[in-house]
Amino acid sequence: MISTYSRTPGWMFAAAALALLAGCASGGKNAGGSAVPAPVGANPQVLLLGEVHDNAAGHKLRYELLRQRVEAGWRPAIVMEQFDRENQDVLSKAQKGCLDAQCVIRVAGGPRWEWQLYYPVIQLALTYQLPLIAGNLSRADAARAVRDGVTATFDPQSIRDYRLDQPLPADVRGGQQTEIVAGHCNMLPEMMVEGMVNAQVSRDIWMAKIVRDQQPRDVVLIAGNGHVRKDIGVARWINAVAPALTVRSEGYVEGQGDSGRYDASYTVAPQPRPDPCGAVQPKAKS
Fold first, then answer.
1. Share of residues in the chain with pLDDT > 90 (%)
2. In whole angstroms, what is the distance from residue 9 CA to residue 189 CA?
3. pLDDT tens string 206-215
4. What is the per-residue pLDDT for 20?
5. 30-34, 210-214, 279-283: range with lowest mean pLDDT
6. Given phi > 0 = left and psi -120 to 50 = alpha, else beta, which region is 30?
7. In DSSP terms, which residues pair with 219 in a beta bridge?
8. Can you list the domains of the chain with their CATH numbers?
9. What is the distance between the alpha carbons of residues 47 and 166, in angstroms, rounded to a whole number?
10. Which residues on adjacent β-strands are paired with residue 80?
11. Which long-range contacts (CB under 8 A, 24 or more apart) does 103-111 make?
12. Which positions carry the signal peptide feature in this UniProt record (predicted)?
């Protein structure tokens, strides 16, 4: 593996890594049968709903559970990883001026996502007048975090609030490092790992900050399973700042172990896809 990697230009790995970070943090139990289970428990102040980004079954199940809550009267704001925070004005104007989700996607959606998977959630927000909130970093800001560290995109008050002037908690840094290395087929150059961790943590803190900014309104976060993890993700950072909020985290996973990661998890059938590591694995010698 090492020799194969060393023959690949470094800029290719950097570009691929940033592209993956733009929509990473997906993780991998199926709600058995075709019936959709009822949502669990009362509506929290913050509901973090994960995803494997390209898994259509997971998107469908998550939407049905959210729809049940909304149709029963819940009216949260919906923060979405799929929209960059810098584009909030465009997203807000689209939500006011568009009659359907396709229009919102056309006006405010970027090129990195399979938008038809998000159409139902966006349409739900339009139908029930739930604010859509952009929650992600742009690629430019992610690159700044890679280059200059976690604090690069935050103002001085946020740095103090989230204690970013101190080393990251060891479990957060270690857990993120493990996920990022595994998510890149255990082929990521060691020199890139710290920067990738910084970018991922920056995304989590920004999402936590944006979620808190919606208070006193309840909030749903739509994001990758890695982002909604209780131990090292957004949930960890939401309550790093007082006052504490009631947070529920749900993973929509493809069967890998998730002990302690979520308050609840739903297993969905794996999405058929090419082996993501196949293109970077060394070829066997004939």
1. 76
2. 11
3. 999 999 999 9
4. 41
5. 30-34
6. beta
7. 46, 77
8. 46-268 (3.40.50.11550)
9. 28
10. 134, 222
11. 104/132, 108/83, 109/82, 109/83, 110/82, 110/83, 110/84
12. 1-31
